[in-house]
């Protein structure tokens, strides 16, 4: 197998995108292209010590910088872009997490307003051991320390939205965006429905690890060196972002309230079973009810994101998305690591 051409992109500080839609492409790529990307952390690299408070070193709305967008040749509305994550590796030996006033699941926010005062700003710097694959938690108010397993992922992956919209890179929705699901890790293929010519794909927001729900609103945020393969599925629509791993098919839904995000993900999974696995709608509804796993992705962003996933070993032996995930896994094996 011939190795595909690799496009390396290392943005300068002024070359990131802060929205999905509304930003000119940084490059045009053909389907099958391999991208070797550097992505900056959600703070644009400005939170480097426990003294660097977000309110002082970051300027809203310039948070969550994205590498891209990339214009994918031949992509049109009604198609699907497939992004296969070959590798996701921290670019530095440290990462940052914080509390942010009026942000997070366990505090007053601008949309859940109360007389409760904002939580104080606190910064945790996590030391990353890239050889041992660990992220070191050190308590700020005690002497507890523990090395947790690293599980690198991308919190934000998306394309330009439909209907001429421009969305902040902080927002998840049907175009993808800031979904913050730990399922977005190496070895996974993400499927995104195309809304505009060229799709305009961007990604960023690397996390060395993150718990389900991202409760305080901030994961273990770090810059990443990431390699992806980008493919195009002509004539296959994808209404909400989907993921495929070696073991699961995975639907996502983003909305508020949380139960609507849950409903979107569950409905998309049922419709996926009908389209590609031969179920009737009611059989799919019953089967999914008894087999689905429903992790939370985030309960802190402008929209919340829920996940619905089913084990492939329990599904009929059918092909989904034209068998693309398996082919991309094979392509990934010949790429330099």
From TrEMBL:
Organism of provenance: Streptomyces durmitorensis
Pfam family, one: FmdA_AmdA
Gene3D superfamilies cross-referenced by the UniProt entry: Acetamidase/Formamidase-like domains
SUPFAM superfamilies: Acetamidase/Formamidase-like
Record-given protein name: Acetamidase/formamidase family protein
Sequence intervals crossing the membrane: none
InterPro entries: FmdA_AmdA
